[in-house]
Design brief:
The protein is an alpha/beta fold. It has 2 domains: 131 residues, Rossmann fold, CATH 3.40.50.1980; 114 residues, Rossmann fold (3-Layer(aba) Sandwich). The chain is built from 11 helices and 8 strands. α2 crosses α5 and α6 runs parallel beside α11. The chain is globular. Bound molecules: zinc ion.
């Protein structure tokens, strides 16, 4: 009797082990699904990818330096990507409004939701690396709501990327320390946030606004700027090389003629660069002018 009872007990253990392992086999599936993230531009897509790493896939709607985000409109593929996504990250404040034409599950804007500014403010928010650090932390929080099981990884990834961004915020601080209330002129307000952080004052805002809006700057504004260049009233001139208005080309020529340094910037990431190297190369142009090696 004893022996038989032992066999029954063993059999019971084996059966229950099968049932338990059978149940646990059905569990995983959900945790292996990758988060689908969309960004309006590739520099925001880069931030999403840095936070997600292998837990997600990123689709950047504008991924080429030849497309102007100001004048873009959605086509079929990005429309479907937005519909299928778990989260959309856009600049906001009127910059990439076209993304709101399609309803998404979750949409955060850098301007309204993170910087807490309204349309009408300068749109070129990615020229604030300090703000980009807040964007990665916000993304970590959002992705953690979608996949709570990866919360620790998202925050660790955001922190690691923010450490790299510190190279940019440190460089801006160094430039500010070596700037003695310098005045500058710009072709467009693209670089203005970086200039403000560096402590430079833009003296031709009215002119720059006209170029940004695609209208002709006034005769007086041009004459004033030409005089400022000839009399070295500016530390340097900032040229957005992605727009080629003839008036800008003439002013750049005048700068060369009068040995006024020109800082070359772009609205979107140039081919072959990422957000970090792009920003660093532009900020270094200013640092080199300060050092007298332009
Ligand atoms: Zn712009």
């Amino acid at each position: 009797m004893r022996y038989i009872r032992f066999v029954w007990l063993n059999l019971l253990l084996v059966v229950s082990a099968i049932i338990i392992s059978g149940c646990s086999l059905q569990k995983p599936a959900k945790s292996t699904t990758k988060i689908q993230a969309v960004a309006t531009t590739n520099f925001y897509g880069e931030l999403e990818q840095a936070v997600l790493k292998d837990h997600g896939q990123v689709y950047s709607i504008i991924d080429s330096a030849n497309v102007d985000p100001h004048e873009y409109d959605l086509t079929i593929k990005p429309t479907q990507k937005i519909k299928d996504s778990d989260l959309v990250l856009s600049n906001g404040v009127g910059y990439d409004t076209w993304v709101t034409k399609v309803t998404s599950k979750r949409h955060i804007t850098v301007g309204e939701d993170i910087a807490h500014i309204s349309p009408g403010a300068n749109e070129h928010l990615w020229y604030r690396p300090d703000l980009m650090k807040k964007v990665t932390l916000k993304l970590a929080a959002e992705f953690s709501q979608i996949q709570p099981q990866h919360r620790a990884a998202f925050y660790a990834n955001a922190k690691a990327y923010n450490q790299q961004l510190s190279q940019l915020t440190d460089l801006l601080a160094t430039i500010k320390r070596h700037n003695q209330g310098g005045k500058v002129a710009v072709s467009e307000p693209v670089f203005d946030y970086a200039l403000a952080t560096m402590g430079y004052k833009v003296i031709n805002q009215h002119f720059a606004q006209a170029i940004e809006e695609g209208t002709d700057p006034s005769y007086d504004d041009i004459a004033q700027l030409q005089a400022d260049i000839r009399h070295h009233r500016i530390a340097f001139f900032v040229e957005n090389t992605q727009s080629d208005a003839p008036v800008i080309n003439q002013l750049v020529k005048l700068c060369h003629q009068y040995h006024v340094p020109v800082v070359q910037v772009t609205e979107t990431v140039p081919a072959g660069k990422n957000y970090l190297s792009w920003m660093k190369d532009e900020f270094m142009q200013v640092r080199n002018i300060q050092k007298g090696i332009d």
